From TrEMBL:
One GO CC term, this protein: extracellular region
PROSITE patterns referenced in this protein's UniProt entry, alphabetically: LD_TPASE
Protein name per the record: L,D-TPase catalytic domain-containing protein
InterPro entries in the record: LD-transpeptidase, LD_TPept_cat_dom, Transpep_catalytic_dom
Active-site residues, as the UniProt record annotates them: 186 (proton donor/acceptor), 201 (nucleophile)
L,D-TPase catalytic domain: residues covered: 114-225
Keywords from the UniProt entry: Cell shape, Cell wall biogenesis/degradation, Peptidoglycan synthesis, Signal, Transferase
Keyword Cytoplasm: no
Pathway(s) annotated for this protein in UniProt: Cell wall biogenesis; peptidoglycan biosynthesis
PANTHER family the UniProt entry points to: EXPORTED PROTEIN, L,D-TRANSPEPTIDASE
Highest taxon of the lineage: Bacteria
GO function terms (MF aspect): peptidoglycan L,D-transpeptidase activity; transferase activity
Amino acid sequence: MGDTRRRGVVALGITALAAPLTLVMGSTPAQAASCTTQTGAYQKQVEKFLGRPVDGKQSAADCTAIQAFQTKHSISPNAGLAGPVTWGVMDLMNKQKAVGKNPNKAGKCPTNKGRIACVDLTLQLSWIQDGKKLVYGPVAVRTGRNGHETRTGLKKIYWRHIDHVSSLYNVPMPYSQFFDGGQAFHSVGISVWAPPGSHGCVNMTKSDAAKYWSLLRNGDDVFVYGRKP
């Protein structure tokens, strides 16, 4: 690849990867909202998830527990209502936990590529496998929101930058590994369950992103499939 083309690819990666920072910077509520007394549509399910007494009726203690969960995962408004967004995050967590250590049970991620990073958009999970052997994961990830979906298909890591910094917001994005037109694995400073999602990148916790960095190299395959709920 010539110098001009290389600079173009790098610039594309920097520009596209900067986009999720609008969510990083603006998705965490500034302060807890006043607690609601309203019983939510998913009251019983949320109570059960949080280990609260399951009676289907909102209480002050229920609201405090729900509000703490919403604040931790940047769910807004965080007024303690057991609504569809809050239950959606909890339901996804339950489904992710149920996968256990066999994320490729259905065989949707290729097993004939050697080492490959798999991304299941439906379950918001990623892992690294070598043939049929699980190398690392599965780990929860945060992929593209509606209109900025993480693109599906077989890709390859083409550029890595361990200390990547957004040129637009001057915010660090550590362990960046680009695999498709600016979309990349990288760590994020908020919950990986925070809705609505990134602008296409695959967000990970710092520890998971660091492990991916140590296991993957330029030219390694990445396979993205499914559809984000």
